[in-house]
Amino acid sequence: MVKLLSDDIKKKNQSIPWRSISGLRDVTAHGYQTLQMEDIWMTATEDIPKLPKQINEMLII
After folding, report:
1. What percentage of residues in the chain have a pLDDT greater than 90?
2. How many angstroms separate the Cα of 11 from the Cα of each of 5, 17, 29, 50, 53?
3. What is the CA radius of gyration of the chain?
4. What is the mean pLDDT of the chain?
5. What are phi and psi of 26, to 5 degrees?
6. What is the per-residue pLDDT for 61?
7. Residues known to be catalytic
8. Contact predicate 56/17, CB 8 Å
9. Residue 59 CB neighbour total at 10 angstroms
10. What is the structure's pLDDT at 32?
11. Which residues of the chain fall below pLDDT 70?
């Protein structure tokens, strides 16, 4: 879904790692043989919890 967002939205909200989000989606969907569970764990425990606040800030703008 990140790829469907306009470039304008992404540029206005550069604190959100759009490329990393879409990249992770591509790896999980198409390259699961290269998937590293440590990376998934770090994303799930460190990165995703920050995302709601970032999205809320984006919606306020």
Report:
1. 51
2. 10, 11, 26, 19, 18
3. 13
4. 89
5. -60, -40
6. 59
7. 25, 30
8. no
9. 8
10. 74
11. 61
Residue 5 · residue 18 · CB < 8 Å: yes
- Residue 27 one-letter amino acid: V
Buried b (16+ CB within 10 A) or exposed e, 31-40: eeeeeeeeee
3-state SS, the chain, equals: CHHHCCHHHHHHCCCCCHHHHHHHHHHHHHCHHHCCHHHHHHHHHHHHHHHHHHHHHHHHC
- Helix (H), strand (E) at residue 30: helix 18-30
Q: Is the pTM of this model over 0.85?
A: no
Phi and psi torsions of 14, nearest 5°:
-75, -10
